[in-house]
Automatic annotation (TrEMBL):
Residues 42-133 form the Methyltransferase domain. It comes from Amycolatopsis cihanbeyliensis. The keyword Methyltransferase applies. Pfam families: Methyltransf_25. Keywords: Methyltransferase, Transferase. InterPro entries: Methyltransf_25, Methyltransf_Superfamily, SAM-dependent_MTases_sf. This is Methyltransferase family protein. GO terms for biological process: methylation. GO terms for molecular function: methyltransferase activity. The lineage of its organism: Bacteria, Bacillati, Actinomycetota, Actinomycetes, Pseudonocardiales.
Amino acid sequence: MLPSPNIWYHPDAYELENRVQDADQAIWRVLRRECDWAGKDVLDIGCGDGFHLARFAETARSVVGVEPHGPLVERAARRVAAVSGVTVRRGTAARLPLSPASVDLVHARTAYFFGPGCGPGLRAAERALRRGGTLAIVDLDVGRGPYGDWMRADLPGYDPAAVDRFFAEAGFRCLRVDTRWRFPDRKAVETVLRIEFSAPVAERAIAQVLRMNQKACGELVLPVGYRVLLRPKRAGPRRLRS
């Protein structure tokens, strides 16, 4: 199990981060166009405190959130307690607590599937999908600045091109999505970026966002690139790299 120090240790700050991300709903539009879940069964891997579950539940037949971290499982369960058709279970991406061929969409957003090494999770997701279902992985595009520049400063061994090759060889189609993070004020910028980066990189990032918005009144905007990786489940066995 891989820890997520941002949401595990700073869940309230991460709640703010979820709210500022994708202010124009660009990722949601791509997902709905490519793998509409209306009337279908959805699995959200690494659901955290359940931020996205109710959104899927608006049109899905059922939604299951799977999260490895106990305190987040509890938060997610409280969040969706009154939402019909949604359940939250504790489990990992590599050991999903679901029956084979039980869902039509497996969604994972900035959770676990970061390239080489995630083969066990890919195989588990494939088992959980029904034929014709889709695995959709939403991840930050680390090759795109300025956010990707800050990530690479903290992760000098991360090779965006190698990650792209890994997913391409595993049969994924990659869609690049431009989004905007919209912060209500400077304090929100500082709160979010300080849970995402080391102290020196966070200070550099905060300063850059403030420079980008020096003529803005009120809200501050940060352009952030994402990759939406899509792979349908087809008939027959699929060889997955580890």
